[in-house]
Design a protein that fits this description.
- The protein has a single domain, classed as Spore Coat Polysaccharide Biosynthesis Protein SpsA, Chain A, CATH 3.90.550.
- Helices cover about 50% and strands about 15% of the residues.
- The protein has 12 helices and 8 strands.
- β2, α3 and β3 form a beta-alpha-beta unit.
- α1 runs parallel beside α10, α7 packs parallel to α8 and α8 packs across α12.
- The chain is globular.
């Protein structure tokens, strides 16, 4: 058996393993995808919103959080990180307009969301502390359907389901599919205690634990991933409330999308290196999350390399064969060239592709509770997402490695 065949088999086996695992988890927990828990008491909570040049959406974000139906929401703390636009003026206006809104400004620009979040957290004295982005818009029942998970004293953090608000541009439509698939998969991960990130648009933590671990890591480009791994490493459980919907604004330009994804992946690399000591240790962070992250990245880069190799080899071979045929005045293509002999590798590939499509269709079907203004994604968008959009990820990962090696920690 040659090396290329072995690589194919390993790639296929890992893909089938994860798809089979997700399917079994789904079938075992199908009735609990959208469950939430009613709180046994009124947990007091404050929401911190970091803001940097968020003039376009910050007032709407404050308004949406203020409209929360949860009675235990005591304070909304909005932290302007020395914006260069009029964000702080808008925030100060909201402070006068809405009760319990506190407008703050960092002494100097921290350069990242973690810095502004930590600054705002200093003013929080409630039992729970939540965080939202300056362009995130939660439904009125989002918080009330999250806090009940804290009835379990072992739960340290709860996150929400993030969906894309702006879906007119084609790139945003593809991200809408992506976010729905991410949320569905993240819920499956919850059932095996393996949620690896508490998202920025809306997540809630136990305030005493948050302070105990010194808040967010301001050196990490993805502070929401790092703090989740921090909680997990200290044996706290992390949950997700699927009925708790928060809408976010997705990048509409390739340049903005690429900048965001480079940061996400570079931050992921930072997190992996920080917690490398957890690898294969007892607990889901060492036995599942860490191996899952690493294997997904390795397979992504390997898959891109394999695709590039096979495509280049095919094109070069066809070019040489065509050039020879023309020079020798022989047939460029014969009936034998059209013969189709399916192999076991072809069968595995088709199986993996089919299962992948079915998984994605099922995940999209589970995206409920959206307003009628949002149309369901069509099959064309899904095909572009699976066969073009996802192929960009390995290239983004390579760019993220370069960003990390350069120690470029800019946002």
């Amino acid at each position: 058996m040659d090396l290329l065949t072995i690589c194919y088999l390993v790639f296929t086996f890992i893909g089938l393993y994860y798809l089979s695992l997700f399917t079994l988890i789904y079938l075992h927990n199908i009735k609990n995808i959208y469950y939430y828990i009613k709180p046994k008491k009124e947990y007091s909570i404050s929401i911190v919103i970091p803001c940097y040049n968020g003039a376009d959406g910050i007032e709407r974000t404050i308004k949406k959080i203020f409209e929360s139906d949860y009675p235990g929401l005591k304070k909304i703390i909005v932290v302007d990180d020395q914006s260069t636009d009029n964000s702080y003026e808008i925030i100060k206006g909201c402070e006068k307009k809405y009760p319990n809104v506190l407008a703050l400004q960092t002494p100097k620009n921290t350069g990242n969301a973690a810095g502004a979040k930590n600054y705002g957290a200093k003013f929080v004295e409630t039992e729970l502390i939540g965080f939202s982005d300056d362009d995130a818009y939660p439904n009125s029942d989002a918080i009330s359907k999250m806090v009940g998970f804290f009835n379990d004293p072992q739960v340290g953090a709860v996150t929400s389901r993030v969906l894309v608000q702006n879906r007119k541009k084609f790139l945003a439509k593809l991200q809408s599919i992506e976010y729905k698939l991410i949320a569905f998969t993240r819920k499956l991960f919850e059932f095996i205690d393996a949620i690896y990130v508490t998202n920025g648009p809306l997540s809630i933590y136990r305030n005493d634990v948050f302070k105990e671990i010194d808040g967010f890591d301001e050196k990490n480009l993805t502070e929401d991933i790092e703090i989740t791994w921090n909680f997990l490493s200290k044996k706290w459980k992390v949950k997700i409330s699927m009925p708790s919907i928060v809408y976010t604004t997705a990048p509409e330009k390739i340049k903005d999308w690429l900048k965001q994804r480079l940061r996400w992946n570079a931050g992921g690399i930072q997190t992996i290196l920080k917690y490398k000591g957890e690898f294969l240790k007892k607990g889901m962070i060492g036995l599942f999350i860490f191996p899952y992250f690493v294997s997904a990245w390795i397979l992504g880069i390997f898959g891109l390399g394999l695709l590039t190799y096979r495509l280049s080899r095919y094109l070069i071979t066809q070019y040489l064969a065509t050039s020879y045929s023309i020079g020798a005045q022989t047939a460029i293509i014969t009936a034998n060239d059209l013969a189709f002999s399916p192999s076991i590798l072809f069968f595995f590939g088709i199986t993996l592709l089919t299962l992948g499509v079915l998984y994605n269709l099922n995940a999209l079907a589970h995206s409920r509770n959206e307003p009628k203004e949002f149309k369901r994604e069509n099959i064309f968008d899904l095909i572009i997402y699976m066969f073009i959009y996802l192929l960009l990820y390995p290239m983004v990962l390579i760019g993220s490695i370069y960003k990390f090696l350069k120690k470029d920690y800019s946002w």
